[in-house]
Amino acid sequence: MKDKKPSPGVSRQDRLSDEGLARLEKQLESGLNISGQVLAQWIKRYGDAARKIIIRHDRYRPEFDDIA
Prior knowledge:
By secondary structure, the protein is mainly α. The protein is built from five helices and no strands. Helix 3 packs across helix 4.
């Protein structure tokens, strides 16, 4: 039997931190093709901070604010 309890994923607190925004920045810098729906979710969670990163990488579309 397993003695360790699984700890999947990233906690909400860690997701909504500067580390999360750094992760978005890194993904966009690497050229990862992130869908518009996912970018809209970043904006919904992180607001203007995520929007600025997405704009800086020329991936922003005004519809993102309506999708989320």
